[in-house]
Amino acid sequence: MRSHLLNDTTADRYRRSVTEGIERVAARLATTDRPFTGVTADDLAPRLERIDLDRPLHDTTAVLDELEEVYLKDAVYFHHPRYLAHLNCPVVIPAVVGEAVLSAVNSSLDTFDQSAGGTLIERKLIDWTARRIGLGPAADGVFTSGGTQSNLQALLLAREETKYDSPADLRVFASEVSHFSVRKSAKLLGLGPDAVVSIPVDHDKRMQTVALARELERCRDEGLVAMAVVATAGTTDFGSIDPLPEIAELCNHYDVWMHVDAAYGCGLLASLKHRDRIEGIEHADSVTVDYHKSFFQPVSSSAVLVGDSATLRHATYHAEYLNPRRTVAERIPNQVDKSLQTTRRFDALKLWMTLRVMGADGIGALFDEVCELAETGWELLAADPRFDVVVRPSLSTLVFRYIPVAVTDPSEIDRANLYARKALFASGDAVVAGTKVGDRQYLKFTLLNPETTADDISAVLGLIAGHAEQYLGESLDRAS
Ligand SMILES: *Cc1c(COP(=O)(O)O)cnc(C)c1O
Known about the structure:
Layout: H1 11-31, H2 41-49, H3 60-70, E1 83-84, H4 93-105, H5 117-133, E2 140-144, H6 147-160, E3 170-175, H7 181-188, E4 196-199, H8 209-221, E5 225-232, H9 244-254, E6 257-262, E7 286-290, H10 291-294, E8 302-306, H11 326-329, H12 348-357, H13 359-383, E9 387-389, E10 397-402, H14 410-427, E11 431-437, E12 440-446, H15 454-479
Parallel strand pairs: 1-11, 3-4, 3-5, 5-6, 6-7
Antiparallel strand pairs: 2-8, 7-8, 9-10, 10-12, 11-12
Helix pairs in contact: 1-3, 4-12, 5-12, 6-7, 8-9, 12-13, 14-15
The chain binds pyridoxal-5'-phosphate.
């Protein structure tokens, strides 16, 4: 069994096994002609049922054969141009090389004595990101597992920086289309059930700052404590960007922590054409960025940044075995002092490889392409009488619905759209997302693949219309 340990004596096995795994994936990618096969959980379950984990196969080739059956053959492939559903990007090859290196060396980024150069690489990328944001010389941050964790940490710091008597008095202000992790964080941080004040959005799904000002004023009048304003730079559904400069002014006026959730919109930090759309982000006290959403990085790769490095002390605890107090005096860079995690992946290496091979402009150009594609998609939808499209994109999502000419019952239209999405998924021809606007069922394209074309969008719209019409036709038959 020792022959399976990765070390100086097993380099050959390592090379052969990993190459074999890579070959399988490469072969799959080469022959995948749809984003999905339409497999159901019921189809898959028996295949897994048959596998006895207490009877290993002892052979990598045999296990990879088995993996084809239970996973690779029917996986959802984000690289396919007709995968248009969630905020998953196709990944760039330099990042995948980084992934292979980081898992083999297996550094853990909690302490310098488990990572050495890895810690300095991560720090350099944090500094790079903070500079791109414009956070100033005192900025710092840390890589995290994702936007959810970044938001949680940012709000933890905000709470600790706020003076309050009872956590029940604390209020967090976020738009009605902000990410649900804001509410989840509030719960985890022990805030009351009414802690998150939902601020209405305008026609373009951007936070209404007049309403924000009113709520901040009301909070003060009621003797409650404003803990943070969460501005979203790229809402998950609409890609809308809250008016950051106005929000920054209000935060300044009311002396409230400003957090910018740029999990999605951070791609603009590398953009060659649209950087101005996140103007004002530099005023933030904290920022969430998800490189695994708009920097073409594999999951997971995310960071939380702060304008004032001193605020990260709220995440600092010392353990004798790991990062004793004296290490601070000795100026040993232990990232665990800034992180909610302890053992932590060296995800930063993927971004490092990407920036060193492609450069930020390379990433920005790809992101600009998907933003342009969304604009084209919007034009197609706006000109197509079969569809209603919600907002003109600031990033790369499109929220729309099929509207049949002959049907007026809103719940029937909802069902037709829901059906179209499910039928499309079952066919595997394309994968799209769904969401609600008000109470109504909508569909969503999240465009993160520069390989997707306007023709793909047209074709998928055609498929959606076809499925919806089929549903409505059958529904008429059922009624008669
Ligand atoms: C996706 C997203 C998150 C959550 O990020 P994860 O990486 O999925 O944890 C938070 N905020 C916004 C705006 C997002 O789009």
